């Protein structure tokens, strides 16, 4: 029997083979290590992602919360001893309401009308703490069964009065738009303050703060005037001009028109003996009084309207107001075509104590009293309403489908 001879392999072959086995083992181990490391990294990433998501959901569930208010003095504002300068006003301060919602903090600047400010009675002498307060009422949500409870926060601002310099003046008598005033300095020297104008004073309007600032050129004395009311006047060429309770005193755009603001009313009258001719007058929240001899070629749409005693006014248009008063010895003529001549809005009042003539064009109502508005006459009243469907009446819809109206003559 023939014996098979085994082939002898070289030493190099065994080393090579052994090396190959070792390399395979290393490759397998490395592959497993990479897989395990990747799996561990993914788990960490996933857990972190879920944690972030959970935290974001928690933040999103946080409601709006009113934290409080902060107060800062506006740049350029200072208060001095012995009455120099002026007393603190709301517009001198930057007041912010601070909130947090969904994990984010934010602030909202408050208007001077939305917060309260209390100045110590002896502040002009001693300075001290000025108290600010603001009440925030959360918005009512659909699921809320009761109204949200208002939240009030307060803050104090302490101020130490500064020493006035020798060239500083303080107001002794306040000037107006028509009368001069006076000022005195530390040494007791007096100087006249001319009536408020744009010649002797530097004029600035701080609309965002709600006031106009007059700075006297000679003395540096500053005078603040709150901007509270506004309205519009159209010229007879139908060009619109807007005024507020300060700028109206400088009005010169419309020929012969003089405007002043007194007792919360815009007073319009001619500057000369000639008839003042203008177009419409508008102002949702404005009160307007006409004096002298005036002719309008447009409408009046304001909150309140007055005809001054002794005035002679002709309106070729309509009047729509909440309140109207024609004083004793006034003379008002209204010429209108179609619709209602005078409309007094809900629960309003019209008082006619002078001479009033309303001439229509065959239809409409002389005086339409809307929603429980009323008319008041006196023994001095002389009211005539001509050529219209109704004289003085109030109306309501009797049948909405047919849109029919019923009314009555008062």
Radius of gyration: 40 Å
Q: How many strand elements?
A: 29
Q: How much helix is in the residues? A: 10-25%
**N→C terminal distance:** 148 Å
Instruction: Report the oligomer.
Output: single chain
Largest sheet: 17 strands, mixed
Strand content: over 45%
- Low-pLDDT segments, ≥5 res: 11-21
Integer count of domains: 3
Specify the overall morphology.
flat
- The average pLDDT value, as a whole number, equals 87
Number of helices, counting only DSSP H or I runs of 4 residues or more: 2
Structural class: mainly beta
What does this structure look like?
The protein folds into three domains: 84 residues; 58 residues, no CATH class; 164 residues. 13% of the residues lie in helices and 47% in strands. The protein has two helices and 29 strands. It has a 17-stranded mixed beta sheet that branches. Strand 28 and strand 29 form a beta hairpin. About 3% of the residues have low confidence.
What structural keywords apply?
17-stranded mixed sheet; mainly beta; 410 residues; 29 strands; 3 domains; 2 helices
Layout: helices, strands, pairs:
Blueprint: H1 11-60, E1 65-73, E2 93-101, E3 104-109, E4 116-118, H2 123-126, E5 128-136, E6 151-159, E7 169-173, E8 181-185, E9 190-193, E10 201-206, E11 211-216, E12 222-226, E13 230-235, E14 240-244, E15 257-262, E16 265-270, E17 276-290, E18 293-296, E19 300-307, E20 312-315, E21 319-326, E22 331-335, E23 340-352, E24 355-359, E25 365-369, E26 374-377, E27 382-386, E28 390-399, E29 404-409
Parallel strand pairs: 16-17, 17-18, 17-19, 18-20, 19-21, 20-22, 21-23, 22-24, 23-25, 23-26, 24-27, 25-28
Antiparallel strand pairs: 1-2, 2-3, 4-5, 5-6, 7-8, 8-9, 10-11, 11-12, 13-14, 13-17, 15-16, 28-29
């Amino acid at each position: 029997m023939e014996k098979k001879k085994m082939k002898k392999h070289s030493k190099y072959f065994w080393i090579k083979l052994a090396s190959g086995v070792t390399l395979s083992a290393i490759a397998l181990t490395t592959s497993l290590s990479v897989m395990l490391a990747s799996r561990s990294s993914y788990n960490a990433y996933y857990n972190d992602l879920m944690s972030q998501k959970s935290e974001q959901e928690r933040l999103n569930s946080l409601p709006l919360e009113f934290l409080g208010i902060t107060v800062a003095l506006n740049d350029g504002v200072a208060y001095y001893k012995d009455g120099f300068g002026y007393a603190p006003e709301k517009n001198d301060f930057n007041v912010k309401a601070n909130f947090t919602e969904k994990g984010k903090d934010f602030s909202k600047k408050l208007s001077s009308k939305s917060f309260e400010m209390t100045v110590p009675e002896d502040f002009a002498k001693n300075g001290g703490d000025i108290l600010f307060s603001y009440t925030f009422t959360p918005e009512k949500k659909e699921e809320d069964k009761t109204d949200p409870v208002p939240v009030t926060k307060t803050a104090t601002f302490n101020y130490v009065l500064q020493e006035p310099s020798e060239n500083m003046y303080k107001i002794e008598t306040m000037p107006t738009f028509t009368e001069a005033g006076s000022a005195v300095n530390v040494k007791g020297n007096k100087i006249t303050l001319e009536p408020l104008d744009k010649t002797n004073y530097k004029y600035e309007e701080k609309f965002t703060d709600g006031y106009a600032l007059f700075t006297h050129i000679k003395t540096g004395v500053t005078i603040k005037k709150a901007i509270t009311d506004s309205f519009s006047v159209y010229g007879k060429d139908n060009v619109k001009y807007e005024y507020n309770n300060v700028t109206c005193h400088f009005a010169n755009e419309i020929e012969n028109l003089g405007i002043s603001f007194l007792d919360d009313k815009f007073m319009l009258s001619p500057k000369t003996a000639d008839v003042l001719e203008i177009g419409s007058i508008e102002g949702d929240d404005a009160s307007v009084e006409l004096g002298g001899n005036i002719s309008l070629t447009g409408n009046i749409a304001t909150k309140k309207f007055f005809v001054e005693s002794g005035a002679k006014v002709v309106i070729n248009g309509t009047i729509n107001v909440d309140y109207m008063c024609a004083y004793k010895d006034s003379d008002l003529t209204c010429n209108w075509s179609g619709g209602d001549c005078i409309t007094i809005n809900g629960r309003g009042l019209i008082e006619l104590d002078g001479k009033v003539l309303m001439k229509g064009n065959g239809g409409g109502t002389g005086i339409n009293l809307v929603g429980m508005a009323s008319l008041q006459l006196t023994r001095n009243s002389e009211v005539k309403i001509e050529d219209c469907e109704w004289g003085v009446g109030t109306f309501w819809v009797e049948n909405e489908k047919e849109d029919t109206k019923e009314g009555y003559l008062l």
